[in-house]
# Entry
Amino acid sequence: MSHALSSSKDGWKLSVKRKLFYGSFQNTNMIGLETLPDPTDIWEIIQTIGKGTYGNVYRVLNKKDGSQAAVKVLDPISVVDEEIEAEYTILQSLPNHPNVVKFYGMFYKSDLKSGGHLWLVLELCNGGSVTELITNLLKRDESMEEALISYILYGALLGLQHLHKNRIIHRDVKGNNILLTTEGGVKLVDFGVSAKLTNARLRRNTSVGTPFWMAPEVIACEQQLDYSYDSRCDVWSLGITAIELGDGEPPLSDLHPVKALFKIPRSPTEGAEL
# Structure
């Protein structure tokens, strides 16, 4: 097992690379791809709304009731690691909550030429991410009002409370992973690096997340094998997100992500010098 820094349009992310569990979607033993329903029986793609790490994101229409949702259509040719399995497992088991994105199911569209596509259907959040919101405000030389920051953080805290009650650590809380709906909803999303705690394992020792938002104790696990952390690391990340919403960037954002990883945990006990 090895650690790696990967980059995407959402920024740098530290992750742990394990053996591929899908291969090239030829091995369907992990989640039984061939037993999943065909998405086209229920969902119809109507618009492309983005591109994620593993494929395109679309707005889809429910043919039965006319409702809309968002779907990640995963490219079977792309390298797929444990993040998709983690997100599916957590979303499938997590009870619905107003501040956590709803999960409408996993589907599989068979295709003899490409090998088939996996669909992960989620609640549609038309308002975009709070990072996009603050970025657009700053472009107009405006800042986010404290009342709005408070509102967003309150919604995110309720979502985190729900996760933690269900023994789930998000591990990648940041502005890009807090989405808004047109009705004013605040939703936590992206559970690809989240972790489930059990009675036998109440703490974790895997260093994952996005560098600028990572808690010192999470970063310390990279260098010190005897270190561990619990759900409180999400509270640190939300605090960094609060600074992001106020300033437009997290602390240390002028540094390369690798340098930030070294600077945040100045010592095992000091924490970050922010």
Remarks:
- The radius of gyration is 19 Å.
- The first helix runs from residue 82 to 93.
